Amino acid sequence: MSDSFTPNVSSRITPRLHPKTNEVIPRVDEWFLHHWPFLSEAVYEEFKSSGPTLFTCYCMPDALDERLELACKILNTVFIVDDALENMSIEEAQGSCKKFVGLILGHEDVHPSTQVEKVFRDLHAEILKIGELGQNYCEDVVQWLKFAARDDRPKWKSSSDFSKYCEYRIHDVGYELTISMLRYAMDIQHPQRNDEVVRECEHLVGYHCMLVNDLFSYRKELASRSTGEIGKAFMNSVLVVQNSGGIGAQEAMVWLERYCEKLEEQFEGVASRTAHLGEDAKRYINALRLLFAGNLKWSSVCGRYNKL
User: Fold this and answer.
1) What is the pTM of this model?
2) Which CATH number fits domain 17-306: 1.10.600.10, 3.40.50.300, 3.40.50.2300, 1.20.140.150?
């Protein structure tokens, strides 16, 4: 049965935690307690137990010490905003995302009217000051916000086109903003961003991360009861594979496990062709490799997916 089936995606890449993890997690948790307007102590405890800060520490183990904390705070707001959108109508989500975009870009006619909006604005103003990498991140989170509130999301609930689903979902989950934050956290300029081999590596990691998240979140999402249009438009590759193959949930999950393992093999094959691109590219490809392993490890242990 799918409700008792635990995903098991094997990997040859060993995940690593950032060395400052044990210091950063309590500091970030404490910061959110004092700056974010959680509705109750129970909501705050649920936020902590879901493990959002652990995500950044697993996925960016080589982040610069002085950049890790801001990276954690900002990506934590992405998790919170994503959850909030789940309980909104399409119209409400579009309005909220438009406001957030204005706050990020510093539009003169857009002002924060809530504590959430103020924190969101201040965090992005901080990363914007850092230079091109911070600006690139803000551009990518703006694109995600615009994509997250699209009104075509409900159609994917009954889709059977796995390839098109993946093309859509990789933008929906905010993969571009994740690797943009990775580059900021490690202070890596986007090496040969137009190089076909680098793009293929990014693409393979993105598919793997997105499908792993789908696999491990499937039981939780199936059991949850979102109240908004966006949340009710349940998007998950397990459903798409079921629809396309006429198979059950457990069979679909096993198929996806093997597919994810093939993606890792393909990545290593493509990555082996990047030696000529220089030291920055080598660092970046290795960071993507650790993102593979870190996201898989986090997905398998985090409260966000595993606490039913």
Assistant:
1) 0.94
2) 1.10.600.10
